# Entry
Amino acid sequence: QVQLVESGGGLVQTGGSLRLSCVASVSHFKINTVGWYRQTPGKQRELVAGIASGGATNYADSVKGRFTISRDSAKNTVYLQMNSLIPEDTAVYYCGADAESYYYTREQFWGQGTQVTVSS
# Structure
C-alpha cells in the first residue's frame, strides 16, 4: 500500500509563499511518479507539478516559474514550493502517486488534500 499525508496548506496573501509537504508510507509498491494536483468546486482535478522516479519534473503552464517540486528521498517526502501566489491558485491541493506493485499492477494513490487559500 501507499499512504500519502499532505501538510502545509493555509491562508496567504497575494504574492506570498507556501510550502506543501507530502509524506509517503510505502509497502509492497514502487512509486513511479508523484504529483501535486489541485481542485476547485465544480472543476476537474488538474496536475500542477510532477516528479518522476528519475528526477524529471513537469509543471502546468499556469505555475511555471512560480512553483517548484522537489523531493527528499531519505524522508520519503515530496515538496511543492509555491511562490508569488495569486487568488487563482486557491484550491484543495492533493498529492498523488502512481505506483507499481511487486506483481506489476499499477495503482494511483491519493492523499486527503490540503486547502490553500490566497486572498487578494
About this structure: The chain has a mean pLDDT of 96. The two ends are 40 Å apart (CA to CA). DSSP finds no helices and eleven strands in the chain. The CA atoms of residues 102 and 120 lie 47 Å apart.
